[in-house]
Task: inverse folding
């Protein structure tokens, strides 16, 4: 009898709590972007801006400081940590590609619809261009003090390399093209591995650090030939900015017309790298039923977002 009364009281208290919650009116913010394209575009633009400000800022500090405020490693750390911060800014909204080669590869392998590709590319170009302008404004006096007001692309006091990549004097266009294809291939191969829930992905919540370390690793191992652009939008937008800001058309003529290599080679490398991982690893995972017991349910939960995305970018994050 006593147990029945206690149970009745419990049911009544639960019903009361539910009714009280139903009576609460949830208020939305005054500004609420419902358009998914706009939300994704803004997030992608902002995270690209954050990544580029830290990356270009680290280069500007090293160059204008003439070694007093960092060395080559500082640039690698700046871009690596910048990527990590960028993923924190936009990772859950746009996937934080920050790289047209990544977006192109995701479209190629069906992880992003092609109709979204122009949105991503425009957002990345905008974020990169604005970041270049910001860094130029912040370091304006330092740049002009360093070069004496003579903005040059090559030479001892060249400063165009703060914003875009240029090949080493010994590097031919063919070798530079291969360098960019290979660097981007390694980037996408490892990104595919980090997001492969059936292999050994980055631990939940550690993805920004993992991807940032990957960019750092590429920089300290494959960066000396041409500055490891491995990103079309990262390179062309600041290059256009420098052409407008005073460096002139030399930014396109330098390095035997180097400018097109970071634009064309990375998408090719991205597809090759992701394709190699998919062909040699991802396609050969055993069925979940063979993984055994409780592991099946765990993997099913982890891969659910990839199978049934709730929005257009739920399966974009890399």
Result:
């Amino acid at each position: 009898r006593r147990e029945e009364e206690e149970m009745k009281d419990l049911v009544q208290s639960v019903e009361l709590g539910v009714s009280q919650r139903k009576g609460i009116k949830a208020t939305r913010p005054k500004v609420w972007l419902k358009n998914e394209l706009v939300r994704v575009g803004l997030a992608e633009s902002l995270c690209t801006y954050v990544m580029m400000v830290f990356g270009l800022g680290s280069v500007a500090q090293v160059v204008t400081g003439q070694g007093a405020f960092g060395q080559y490693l500082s640039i690698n750390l700046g871009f690596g940590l910048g990527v990590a911060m960028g993923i924190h800014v936009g990772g859950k909204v746009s996937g934080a590609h920050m790289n047209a080669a990544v977006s192109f590869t995701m479209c190629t392998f069906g992880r992003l619809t092609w109709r979204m590709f122009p949105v991503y590319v425009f957002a990345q170009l905008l974020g990169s261009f604005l970041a270049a302008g910001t860094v130029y404004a912040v370091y304006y006096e330092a740049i002009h003090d360093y070069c004496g007001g003579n903005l040059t692309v090559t030479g001892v006091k060249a400063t165009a390399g703060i914003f875009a990549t240029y090949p080493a004097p010994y590097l031919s266009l063919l070798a530079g093209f291969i360098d960019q294809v290979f660097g981007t291939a390694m980037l996408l191969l490892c990104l595919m591995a980090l997001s492969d829930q059936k292999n050994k992905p980055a631990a939940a919540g550690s993805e920004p650090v993992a991807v940032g370390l990957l960019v750092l690793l590429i920089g300290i191992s494959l960066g000396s030939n041409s500055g490891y652009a491995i990103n079309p939008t990262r390179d062309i937008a600041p290059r256009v900015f420098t052409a407008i800001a005073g460096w002139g058309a030399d930014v396109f003529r330098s390095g035997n017309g180097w400018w097109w290599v970071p634009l064309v080679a990375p998408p090719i490398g991205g597809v090759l790298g992701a394709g190699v991982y998919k062909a040699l690893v991802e396609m050969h995972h055993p069925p979940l039923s063979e993984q055994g017991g409780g592991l099946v349910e765990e993997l099913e939960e982890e891969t659910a977002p990839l199978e049934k995305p709730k929005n257009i970018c739920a399966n974009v994050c890399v």
Notes: The chain has one domain: 36-282. Residues 36-282 form a domain with the Glycerol uptake facilitator protein fold (CATH 1.20.1080.10).
